Every structure is written in structure tokens, then in C-alpha cells.
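Before relying on records like the one below, remember that each one covers exactly one chain. Contacts with other chains, cofactors or solvent are not represented anywhere in the record.
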Amino acid sequence: MASALLELAPVEPNRQISMMVEEAASLSKLFTERKWPVFVFLDSHHPNKPESPYPPHCILGSGEEDLVPALKWLEEDPNVTIKRKDCFDGFIGSMEKDGSNTFAKWVKANEITSVLVVGVCTDICVLDFVCSTLSAKNIGLVPPLEEVVVYSQGCATFNFPVDIARTLKGALPHPQELLHHIGLYMAKGRGAKIVRKVTLGSSQEL
């Protein structure tokens, strides 16, 4: 829900990313007020364990591996489970040394049938998590989960312009709007439900 890219993070306010943070904060508040469970992934990397092909990001001790200020309160909420991961995919990152999966155990313990996904990056961490979770669901590894829903307004990715990418060996441009929508398209193709609005109960809507 709250991973970030260090060198690729915007140096100026970014509309898509700002909206993602606002929507994630609003949804989290609505969930916790109802005492509904929230699961938070935090991208957290050791300096000596690079995550190719991306530059160093979310290094432990840098501050980049922590929740942004608007979501910092989640650390103290009893309804929130926080899992640090050191790979793109939160589902894979939830694997423990004993073979168990923290996310799968959370789903089972809370009897979750539908999970609502928000965060960054739409086409990387979000997409990878969604695909793995859907695959795991299809073979019965995350009971009683039935559906994965992605809230498009609560997701975002980064922008890496062509003119800058051309100056760096091996770098690829990363057009923000295009890849945000490609990430959503791919998630839908794998079986996720993509929504532009979220309605909770009879009156609360985002």
C-alpha cells in the first residue's frame, strides 16, 4: 500500500500520486473506523540486496521505507497489519522461512472473501501482488478469498521521461498515465475487478 521508488520518486508534487495517497488515507480511515482489517505492505530493502532493474530504493534506515505522513497513523491502529517486503510482489514477500504466508494467514484469520487493493506502483508492485494472489486463490491457497478488487483512483505509478531515460545506459522510459492504465488492464485480464468508486455500506462512497 505504501511502497515508493527513491530515485524515481517525483521531486515535485504529482497529481496521480497525491490522489493515490489521499484515497488510500480516506479508505483506511473508513475501514479502521468500522474495525475492518487492513493489511499494509512496505517496500523495505537492505543496501546490499539490489532489486534489479531498478536503482536503490526504500533502503532500510533511509526513511523511504516508512509510511508517508498521511498514512503514518496506521502504525498505531490495532486493526492494521504491517508487512515489510523486499521484493516487488507482496504475496511472495509474505512468504516466511517456515513456508507459511503472512498474507494468506491474515485472510484466513479475518475470514476475508474480498480484498480491496490500493497503492504504488500500479504496473509493478500492485500488478504483481494482484496476479500472484489471484493465482493462489485459483488453487485454494488463500481461503476463503473469492475476489480481488483494485481501486483505480487509489493506485499510481511513477513518471520517467524519455529525454532523461536516453541519457542513462540501460534505462527505459516510464510514461506514467500509459503504464498506470496498462497495469489496470493487465490486472483485469488476470481476473481482478477494477473499480473507479468504492461504496461502503449504504452511505459512504469514495
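The radius of gyration is 17 Å.
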